[in-house]
Amino acid sequence: MSSVNDVLWQQLTEAEKADILSKHATRQTGAAATPLMVESYAALVSQDFPPQQFLVDGLIPAGQLVMLGGRGKAGKSWLVLQLVAAIDRGAPFLGRATTPGRVLYLALEDGRRRMNQRPKMMKWAPSPRVDIAFNIDTFDGGGEGLAHVRDAIAAGSYDLVVIDTLVKTLSASADENNNTEMGAICNALADMAHDSGATILIVHHTSKGAAETFGNFRGASAIRNAYDVGLSLDRRHGEKQATLHVESRDFDAAEMSIKQADNGAGWEYLGPVAEVAEMAAGRVGVADLMAAGDGSTTAEIAKATGKTPQAVRGSMQTAAKHFLVVNKVEKVKGKKGVDRWYLIDAGKIGGQTEANGLHGDGLQDESEKDSGE
Asked: What b/e string do you get for 247-271 counting C-beta neighbours within 10 Å, with b at 16 or more?
């Protein structure tokens, strides 16, 4: 029935969805219907709104609903604890500047012992700006959990509220695949964030066996429709490196490559996925050159590695772009010059490349290229 409900929900118009959610919220609270509030659109547009503020520069905005998804044991809780520590200290988070503030961490999946030990592993001593709770009333079925979050934000003036995880806020009778039910909860949290100016970050699970993309956030599609920013932690089982995908309604952010810290306590930022992949390709060129021997030609590297000269030339040029190798054109009287590739210490590039006849960009002059190799 859950999948049927989801299919039917997708067939509704946005107006029909909004009407159903409104009726559900009214039925849940028992409150009388309020009149429609209208305002002049021209008056709204004439106002000057301040620029979007961020808790984490270009990644996590203030006053919005953010959802972090990923498989179980992927490292989501470490990532959000690292975020809490960064906001507490005003320290960088995944290579980005942060705005210090007050935090409420609802650690609903972790016990007191674990939350006692993890900050010590991170060498972080939480300040009085950070509060924590391990239990909360349910968000559905008449529970007071949503009201508790709203009241806590008002009383504590929190800049960030982390709910880890969404499923732990639901009663046993809740249906995670019910769009009406989950939409009412997630939309209420989004309204809370927008109205209060506090960022609310929900940790959620993705479907088992599926790639870590936003369409695989577990449960009803209304969950994804409600958040302003989505983060998806894609980490393959047994690997230390992962990709953090980002989607937002209001800004663009490149997906990031991150790596689990050596002691397992949190994550280290490696760089944008495209740049990290290119650097990895450059390291392939270094490995190929080492296999063939320093000073080998493109043809010799191809023979040693079993690759085509075209593939070798591409990997070597990528390695040169990252200052891992350089080339020297070996001139033979009466013949076209031949590229020879050399490993190089990036710290020794300045001043030495030209003296040795090497090109620091790893690419030879057009007049010196050996088109026949």
From this structure: bbeeeebeebbbebeeeebbbebbe
**Comparing C-alpha atoms, which of 339, 84, 97, 49 is closest to residue 199?**
84
Structure-token match 């604890």, residue found? 81
Model confidence, pTM: 0.69
d(CA 70, CA 241): 14
Instruction: Note the CATH architecture for domain 276-368.
Output: Orthogonal Bundle (1.10)
- Which tokens belong to 340? 């020879």
Q: Which amino acid is at 58?
A: G
CATH of 11-24+51-265, one of 3.40.50.300, 3.90.1570.10, 3.10.320.10, 2.60.120.10: 3.40.50.300
List phi, psi (to 5°) of 8: -60, -40
Q: Per residue in 296-341, pLDDT tens?
A: 999 999 999 888 888 888 888 888 887 889 988 888 777 778 889 9
